[in-house]
Amino acid sequence: MTTLTGCPALDVRPAPATQVTHEGAAWLASACTHPRSALAVWEERPAAPAVLPCGTAFDVVNVPLVLGRRMLDLLWAEGPGCGPAAVHRGRILLFTAPGTAQRLPALLAWEEWSPNAAAPICHGLGDAVTVPPLVATPGPSRWLVAPDSRRPWLPGPDALLWAFLHAARLQVSIFRSADRDANVYDVSRRR
Fold this sequence. Notes:
By secondary structure, the protein is an alpha+beta fold. The protein has one domain. It contains five helices and seven strands.
């Protein structure tokens, strides 16, 4: 397996990758206007984050950390799985199929998701995101599921809608009473 300078090969991983493989770096670079130049820069500085354009190779759905972890858990446990995912500055970046950033807000509106409630930030065509370094480094950015192929599977708007709604409802239900049918009596006026 060919690797970038400073990036050891990962042959068999029982868990998702924490650093990007050469094939994953090639996929990320494919989002750039000049992919070979991007790869050359990463070969020289694999521990540096990069800013990549969205909308051609991928879109990114950006959610708060706890909600994003719940979404990832749901996508892996009950859904189709997920594509690459990263943590950046206390938020989770979910790499999705191109077009998801445009479609997901419309689907949330159809579900009558309150605009005042937590909503994902969708980065699509014309946007750019900061991605973590190719290699695992200490800091505010890291890969949870690193890109490991030239054609990673990317969830679309339907899978993200399902995961977002289930994770958000789970988050709300944690703070509500576990037993809604329980008899509650006002004991403040007892003599």
